[in-house]
Amino acid sequence: MDEVLTDLERYGWSVQPMFLDAAASRNLKVECADRYNDGSFRHAGVGRGEALQVRKEIRGDEVMWLDPADASPHQAAYLSKLEELRLALNQRFFLGLFDFESHFAIYPEGAFYKAHLDRHAGTRERVVTVILYLNEDWQPGDGGELKIWTTPEGRDGSFEIIEPRMGTVVCFMAEDFWHEVLPATRQRMSITGWFRVRAE
Questions:
Q1: Can you tell me the distance from the alpha carbon of 137 to that of 76, in angstroms, rounded to the nearest whole number?
Q2: Closest CA to 45 of 25, 65, 16
Q3: How many Cα atoms are found within 13 Å in the side-chain-facing hemisphere of 91?
Q4: How far apart are CA 118 and CA 27, in angstroms?
């Protein structure tokens, strides 16, 4: 937890391999796959509100939103860990984070998500992005890496390529960092979410 806080303070982003242990990550992976196979996922859209639309030429993932009030024991354990992180972020940075919204995400083979920011235009609710990867035995060539631009120059600056390995967590400030998901050559799973502040 301290490493995440230190990285966010210094760089605005953090990568933590094995943030979640293998057994806990595997349990979430199994749940993600089961819910996908039972038809609980929907194609993700771009935009918000009435402007929301499915645009597979921009993003090709499918998602299932998680309901904390109806969370499985494995989901609840992960969300409890993130609640500890929320409290630590507020204590360290006075961010005023009040909740966490998240979804399972699956990128089928060939799917991608073009470069974007996680804070919708005209909104400020999403403050910190958190991604947990659930890809067991990921190998170079499997695709689905996260490309994140790490300087104020945005997409004209330097970037990092992050492998979506099981148990790895990536955190970054939602309004500051352009990022994209590179095309997957095998199914790619994650839980993606955002710590939020109250809407004004």
A1: 25
A2: 65
A3: 10
A4: 27
How many CA atoms within 13 Å lie on the side-chain side of 116?
15
Pair 31, 57: CB distance under 8 Å: no
Reported as a single tens digit per residue, the pLDDT across 148-175 is: 999 877 888 899 999 999 999 999 999 9
Residue 144 and residue 182 in contact, taking contact as beta carbons nearer than 8 Å: yes
Measured CA to CA, the distance from residue 152 to residue 157 in angstroms comes to: 7
- Domains in the chain (CATH in brackets) are 2-196 (2.60.120.620)
As a whole number of angstroms, the distance between CA 179 and CA 96 comes to 24
DSSP designation for 156:
G
**How far out from the chain centre does Cα 15 lie?**
12
State if pTM tops 0.90.
yes
Q: Nearest CA to 127 among 55, 177, 64?
A: 177
Q: What are the tens digits of pLDDT across the range 43-82?
A: 987 766 666 677 778 899 999 999 999 999 999 999 999 9
Q: 């590179």: which residue's tokens?
A: 182
